[in-house]
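Continuing the batch. This is chain 6 of the set; chains 1 through 5 are on the previous pages. Same settings as before, nothing changed between runs. Recording input and output for traceability.
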Amino acid sequence: MNIAHWLERSALVSGSNPALMLGERLVADYATFHARAAALAQALTAMNIAPGDRVAIYSGNAPDYLVALYGIWIAGAAAVPINAKLHPREAEFILADSGARHLFAAPGMAEGLNCPATTLDSPAFTAMTTGAPAPITERSPNDLAWLFYTSGTTGRPKGVRITHAMLAATSLCYPVDVDPVSPADAALYAAPMSHGAGIYAPIHVRMGARHIVPPSGGFDAAEVLALSAALGPTSMFMAPTMVRRLTDAAQTTGSRGDGIRTIVYGGGPMYRADIEEAVAVFGPKFVQIYGQGECPMAITALSRADVADRTHPRWQARLASVGRAQSMVEVAIGDATGAPLPTGEIGEIMVRGAPVMPGYWQNPDATAKTLVNGWLMTGDMGSLDADGYLTLADRSKDVIISGGSNIYPREVEEVLLTHPTVHEVSVVGRPSAEWGEEVVAFIVPTPGTTPDPAALDAHCLTQIARFKRPKVYVTLQELPKNNYGKVLKTDLRRRLAEES
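Output for chain 6:
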């Protein structure tokens, strides 16, 4: 089944219901939303976009983002949402690797990219969305719907194949395990639609709820509080750092988060003190989820009741967990061979079920390493207690999660190593109250040179996204290494902890 059928059904059942909003301004009801997306599908078909072809979206949040997404699906193509914060060089790689036939981009973002493009909210896009509608192209459950690019430990992006069946399974977990949805509710897109927030769009489309894009196009705490008060009940996905900033803003203004129904948080480590404070300010409005691109948003959930509970004898341990397995998956803990470990022991988190990917895009080696005997090997370490609560112990990968975005050290290291003053470098993350984690680069200078942080910043910005560049540069005479010459990042992290 094509996931776009959910939009068609909502248009038939509740076509006059408000669908797309830019702030408090209504952009389209469900009938108009469906008509524009179906016309876009017809335009794509006229451009010889065939079922199974990939069409990319490189944009910040906008109502037209959802029109483009559903137009792609109605045409039977697969969407390739690209993080708007990525550097054009990184976007170019994704376009080439995915074989994207067309690109929908925010104004100015398609410049220099080697792909035919249409600018969102332009006369050309308007023309594409006002013609005759196309019928929904039928797709099988295992056909590609969304190609999500996530980096591996080497920093080279891998395309996660998200099928129509995966989207349906993840979507149906939401009202069962996370939060019920009704037509009176609204999804507020403060986090990027290219990631988890966008993954939650289909269930809100299916239920005929409103989709609110803040006029800022991103996360502004005061704006979120104001829009929720005016348009609630709102639900939204946030990285832990966003929850922290929203709590600070509410305390400054005396807001209690009127109109906010639910905040789903995930995508990085949440400090227990921060979520306790957030619940104290806003009340029982929080649900935690744990997932990854390979099983999007659908591994575990910590319920609203568990997040708010302060009476259970083990409430602190439960609040420090990421909850229990969602309805469509099994979760287990395995040893280095994938053999199950007893309750309470730490090992690799393994997942299987309908929301798990069938594999990476054109990368059989990575697929074989990640999907083992029917299990998704997440690369994350954790333990399960007797009640089924999963607690993360560590990440086996060195990924740094800053502001909800993944940063892979080797990618940053390889850029820095091309600067003439950098002889050796090792990048690690350190805790940050504002961002969750921030990037720190330990540098051994090229003999006779002195690295200049401003020059290194400028060098990074020519090749990678701004949010990936180091916040701090530390110069060392040598990097700590073991007998095999491997850099001991644990020693570097320990040094940062001792200095904090």
